[in-house]
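Onboarding guide, step 5: your first structure request.
Type a short instruction followed by the sequence, for example:

Predict the 3D structure of this protein.
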Amino acid sequence: MNTTEQLLNLLETTLPTAWQEPIAELAAQTLHADSPLRVTLVGGFSVGKSSLLNMLLGEKLLFTAIEEATALPTFLEYGDERAMSLIGTDGSQLPLEAADFERVTTQAPQGAACAVLALALDWLQDVVVIDLPGLGSVSETHHAYTLAQIQQADAILYLVEPRGPSLSDLNMLKRIREYGKRVKVIVTRWDEVEAAIARGEKSPNLQQWAAQIEQKTALKIRLATASHHGHGREEILEFISRAKDDISHIRLSRFKAELVPTLQNALGLNAAEQQSCEVRSEESARQLHAELMQRKQSLLAFKTSLYEQQQQEYKKVENEGSSWAATQRKQLRQNLQLIANDLQNENDWQDFINQGAEVLRTELSNLAETMSQQSVSYGELNLPPVAVEQLNLRLPAPETVDVNDFLEVAKLNQLQQALATKQQEIAVKAEQLQSIDDVDLTQEEQALREMLMHRQQVAYEPLPRIIERTQGGSGAAIGRMLGEIADIGLIFVNPAVAGSKAAALAGKGAKVINVSMNAKNVAKGVATGIKASKAAKMGKNIGKAHPVMEKLGMLEVLSLGYWGERIGGLFGEQPSEVEVIDPQARAEQERALGELDNQIHQIRRELARKEDMANERQLTGWALAQNQQEQARLQADLEKVSGQLIERKQQAESELTAQRVQTIIHHAERAQNQWLRSFDQQSTSMTTLLLARVKQYWTNYVEQTLVDRMQEVDSLVAQMQAAPQEKATTLARLQQEAIALNHVLKELT
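The system replies with structure tokens like these:
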């Protein structure tokens, strides 16, 4: 059978009619001499398929990498101009730039079927070269697509590694031979082999590899070598050219290769059918009878299942209707809540009522539309029109706030009265304070301090002291008397020098010897001496007299009475001396202290009087300050109560506002509840109508289905009656088909 026409004629005239259609489809897939030669590159991933194509094309147009580079099948075909495009699974075509072409071939976009590269190369005329993802790809989709393209290919360029064919390569080559493909096995990356040979490594034995391939696959081939530098290009192009010239023979071989296993499979099925027909003939009556009884039982079970299915479907629709209604009700509630949130006052009430009614109408319409669409399979559903009643809800009149009703008002009045009273008291105290003169105690206090200091000085001022002598021997007494008389005489001679002391000595001497003297003169002299002594102590001078000595005892040493006593004492017992305070000086001191005490008493009386005045002014100032503090406290309390009153008023107004808002919210909730009740009533009515339609549908469906099943039972009875004749007819047909299949297989082989 050398020509396609002869083969197709044989198949058409010999094979049964049942096999004509699948064989015609196989012929249509393989026997097209006018279509381009399909050359497919096959090999493991990263074996160098893309590099080989770049070498054949003369430029790097396909991406190459160590790892799996081709993720999308790439078709190379002839074109007047260079063009790149992406073909989608839906048949769409998208032009690409060079950068995009590389991206889509390495990273296949979602929905992409393949990439197409058109080039104006002579050897590509009437040729389609397909670059596929490598065998053993990590993608199962890529692997399945690769196998499908191999089966549809006319010629195969099979690439192997420089280390030789692997077990997977041998298995794939065996499958390719069974497909009837023309194959060219190429060892890639031969430049690496040449470099290894140059380093002293052993050269691969290509003939041995070819013998191994022939032994495992029955393919008689000669291995070719190629590298990306251009080595092997002419041999590959020559293979493609010869295949293109011999395309009719190639495709006829493909057709035969795929037809033989198909016919062998058909022959096997025919034998199985004949055997089955013989087996069925023996048990045909029993099986048909048993089947008939089983059909009747299954019919009863089927009837029961239909009713159960009806109930399930009814329940399902009921649940779905409830779910649809619940969904729309939820949407209705949300939409009503949205317009309720915009309700601020009484002015918005009517808009709220109108918008709520419109929302209700919309959601009921949506529910009706949903039920109508979902019930199409059950027949036409006639739902009643949507009805929305106008709500008659009115808001009560708003209340107002009366300030006089607050307890703070009475307290505020009381505080205002108390504040007015306190202000009057303050005015009185201020007037009293102005009427009391300001008292300055500084002068009296200073004078009192000075007087007290003066008195202390006078009280602690040292007083003159005198010597009192006790009675001694007569010689000393007489000497003393004579000396003092002489001293008295000296007073008259120079009174400015010895007046004061002479008087003292004369006084003492008179006391001692009990001599009567002119007391007046002596006293005058003593007074003069005291004044002189005081003047000396105060830093003053009396006339032209010399300063009086601080100690009168020293004056006594200068007196003749002292020395007379001393001399007289030599002749008798000496008298003893006692130093005492001068009584006259003490009297002067006490008088001076008395006068100072009187002055101090007067100053203290005046100071006490002024202190009373100051105390009165101070007490009045304290009372005024206390009243002012009380006024400030009352003012603070007044402000506090006033603030509380304002706050209470604001709180009352806020409470009224809140009550009003609550009233509006309450009425809005009543409106929403009424709308929801209306929705529930109408949705329930819609669901009831839908369920009634479903029930009617299933009633009709069950009846019709049972009628059809009864027809199947009747048909089985007819089969029982016709079984013997049908067996004979079937066996005769199968035997004729087997004869025809064997004849065609004999011609093909």
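Each response can be followed by summary notes, for example: The chain has 19 helices and eleven strands.
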